[in-house]
Specification:
The protein is built from eight helices and two strands, in the order E-E-H-H-H-H-H-H-H-H. The protein is mainly α. 21% of the residues are buried.
Length: 187
């Protein structure tokens, strides 16, 4: 079988490509690339897809927030206690602990509020300074002025580290007043 040649302007002859084989190679390569892309897309989609548990926890958190907002604390607590057992993700546990702490604070069950803030802060230490004002208030209500002062001082440091926005000075002044008042009570 004789190969066809392609002229290159008279300087030499190059063998012609076999069109059927080239097309077949490119077609197979293209199909393989598509298959690999589809598999990669399916794997990515499966990893990014929320699980039934994620959906249930998100729905439970929303339901408990709604119940809490309506003053149905027992319903919210029941929802959250169930979620506490189901939550496996750190972010879900933090959200559950935060809501439990808020409800117990509102109900006046302050020991439990402190307990759940502690659990939250164990998982998310950065949130301790953000919650310090609330904890200061809780300790003050419990009559533990020394711990209240410590929390208010932490809250004061945090407020001072924030950008200068409307209300920041008032927050700082209020915290300083609370600290001074409690220091006067402990002396």
């Amino acid at each position: 079988m004789e190969q066809a040649v392609i002229g290159t302007g008279g300087e030499g002859k190059l063998p012609a490509l076999r069109p059927k084989r080239t097309v077949l190679v490119w077609a197979v390569a293209g199909v393989l690339i598509i298959i690999v892309a589809v598999i990669a897309l399916l794997v990515w989609h499966q990893k990014s897809k929320p699980t039934d548990t994620d959906d249930a926890i998100a729905a439970g958190l929303k339901a408990s927030q709604t119940a809490y907002g309506q003053g149905a604390y027992d319903v919210a607590l029941a929802d959250l206690n169930g979620l506490e057992q189901k939550a496996t993700k750190k972010s879900d546990k933090i959200a559950v602990y935060d809501q439990l702490a808020s409800i117990y604070t509102t109900q006046g069950t302050l020991d439990k509020a402190v307990q759940y803030y502690g659990l939250k802060h164990t998982l998310d230490p950065g949130s301790a300074k953000k919650d310090a004002n609330v904890l200061g208030s809780i300790y003050e209500r419990m009559g533990d002025n020394q711990k209240a002062i410590e929390q208010y001082q932490l809250a004061l440091q945090y407020r001072k580290s924030l950008p200068n926005v409307s209300g920041r000075k008032m927050d700082i002044d209020t915290l300083q007043g609370q600290i001074e008042s409690l220091q006067g009570d402990t002396q």
